Amino acid sequence: MTNVPIIKQVPPHIIGGKILFAGSDGKFYGKSGKQLKHAYVPGRPAYKGRPVYPHMNSGYGDKECHFLMACAFLHIPDRSKGEVVDHINGDLLNYSLDNIRIIHKSINNRDGGFLRKLRNKGLNPTYYATPFLLRFFDRMVEFKSSHTPYQYQHLSRTDLLKLLVEPEYIVGTPL
User: CA nearest 101: which of 129, 138, 131, 66?
Assistant: First the structure.
């Protein structure tokens, strides 16, 4: 059985009155139904300290793909309230609906630190399903509040893996 993506129109006022459709799988379509490609230059240096995200070309307002997906499926983020669009697994090229959420920028920064902690221990967050990562973020908040800074800073790879996947999977040393 295949998952058929949900298609929704991006609010036209966001993209200068143009017609653009977003698929829950992260693809974009023009008014004729033709799939459109995003603009992205891998390895391009950050601009003013911000990473360079995939975006739709200037014909569609030169808006970032993850922002357009959020506008179509969730709501238009209110930047005055600190709302940002987060890539849950940290992969900027994955802006499918199951990998984005709108949260406060402080939560985005906090969870980004937790992802960095995984990467620093050789665990790639893109290998794990969204529900595992969201639960991991909650567990890390709880761990950080109930343990000393030293214990938090010295979490081992095994400790992080247990926080990430248990109880569904048992973390141990293979025989």
Answer: 66
